[in-house]
Amino acid sequence: MLRSWSRPLVASLTLVVLLLPGCGGNDDGAADTTLAATTTTPPATTEAPVATTTVPSEASSVDDSVVTAGWVQVPQSADLFSSDGSQEMNSVVRWEGGFVAVGGDGGELGRDAAVWVSADGLVWSRVVDPDGLTADGWQTMNAVTTGGPGLVAVGTSAPGLHKDDAAVWTSTDGLRWILVPDDSGDFSGAGDHHMADVVAGGPGLVAVGSVGSVDTGVAAVWTSQDGLAWTRVAHSDEVFGGDKWQFMASVTDSDLGLVAVGGDSSGGDLDAAVWTSLDGLVWSRVVDTDGMLAGSGDQAMASVTVGGPGLVAVGREMPGSDFDGVVWLSSDGASWTRIDTGDAFGGPGDQAVAQVSEVDGGLMAVGYERIEDRDAQVWESADGLAWAKSSDPDLIAEGLQEIHSLAASTERIIAVGYSGDIASTNAAVWHHPD
In terms of Cα–Cα distance, which of 226, 230, 276, 286 is closest to 255? Predict the structure, then answer.
């Protein structure tokens, strides 16, 4: 059974997909308990239109000036960001003028879904909702989006010791959450069921993940009109299956339809994989005729977004003893080009990219770099072709840090993940003026 499964890819790249986690500080004041804001931003149902320009096969020279310095970690209070076990934020979304982050909190005896809210990205509150976020066994929220009754989060729930089921939570205000009942039985059944990501699109909402195990798992898609009633898209071996293991780690919506990315180990090692759909109900597997999704060792995509010349996907590969970040571009979702990013995503140690997002017309990717300790890391690009890695000292601290997700308002960029050590991890937030 895979615990805390989500966008990030496991370091071994044999690759079990983890929740990119992924591991305190002094409190400088009491956090607000509301998600109030002076302005209201309506939920977006689609991302920016996809461009139709041709993707060049090589990147232009990297411009170091594109990198944004000046990140600051929000001070960590013991009751807000830490616990006796492991705690992390896996996904953050801008909503109602503020921010909502989701993740998990727990130790060896159990784990609960966890939610934090902030009106400005600087002062945060931990949501206390035992009826909606606490249950027997293990629960983790892997991703959150706007849609349905307001907010929809997806992840896993494991009421027993040896099996994971898919799970969906909804909220109208970010403060009170409902665990959606599995009335259709499509969240459970034979094998583990994992939801890794969710997006507003298709008939209303589309969630992606996998069903099965690392040895025999298949990619899976669930859809909903309102976030409350869900149906799993009918399985097809030709589209979602194959030998060994297939999984979807991320999904995005565009004017050209939906695009999901992940991995497939049918070829003997792990290769990146892409699926497309016009409506979220009927899917096609992209055929890698140019070999851009495969290569020496293991490759997998962890995140996809609209941006650059059309679509941008990031992930990692393990050609040798360590792993590096990878960027792919596409103008239509059907044909992909792997970009030469120079040393931005490579070099000594490990570089792992968890998410890529469009920010202010450019692109920002987040994850971690491990040379000695594991440090949070940010990469930026103006066009998806040329990338630069941050050398911001405020992202580097003692112990372990990873960034899993980011969101931006007109005032600032928010990144979330964890910080800590091998024994325990604490939820973590970084902010930067936009």
Answer: 276
Residue in the structure block whose two tokens are 């799993």: 232
Produce one character per residue of 279-297: b if its CB has 16 or more CB atoms within 10 Å, e if not.
ebeebbbbebeeebbbeee
CA distance 297 to 229: 40
Cα 374 from Cα 365, distance rounded (Å): 17
Residue type, 286: V
pTM: 0.85
Q: Residue 212: left (phi > 0), alpha (psi -120 to 50), or beta? A: left
CA-closest candidate to residue 368, choices 284, 321, 302: 302
**Other residues' Cβ atoms within 10 Å of the Cβ of residue 65:** 8
How far are the Cα atoms of 75, 118, 224, 281, 334 from residue 96, in angstroms, in the given order?
24, 10, 22, 29, 35
Q: What's the rounded mean pLDDT across residues 313-327?
A: 88
Length of the chain: 434
Residue 65 makes CB contacts below 8 A (sequence gap 6+) with none
Q: Which of 10-19, 64-73, 297-306 has the lowest mean pLDDT?
A: 10-19
Q: In degrees rounded to 5, what are phi and psi of residue 210?
A: -155, 160
CB-based burial label for 359 (10 Å; 0-12, 13-18, 19+): middle
Q: Which domains does the chain have, with CATH numbers?
A: 64-433 (2.130.10.10)
Confidence of residue 82 (pLDDT cuts 50, 70, 90): confident
Cα separation, 323 vs 298, in Å, equals 9
What pLDDT is stored for residue 67 in this prediction?
A: 58
364-370's contacts with Cβ under 8 Å and 24+ in sequence apart are: 364/68, 364/406, 364/413, 365/303, 365/314, 365/325, 365/327, 366/403, 366/404, 366/405, 366/406, 366/415, 366/417, 367/8, 367/20, 367/325, 367/402, 367/403, 367/404, 368/401, 368/402, 368/403, 368/417
Q: Which residues contact 317 (CB under 8 A, 6 or more apart)?
A: 13, 295, 297, 298, 299, 300, 323, 324, 326
Say which residue, 255 or 315, is predicted with more confidence: 315
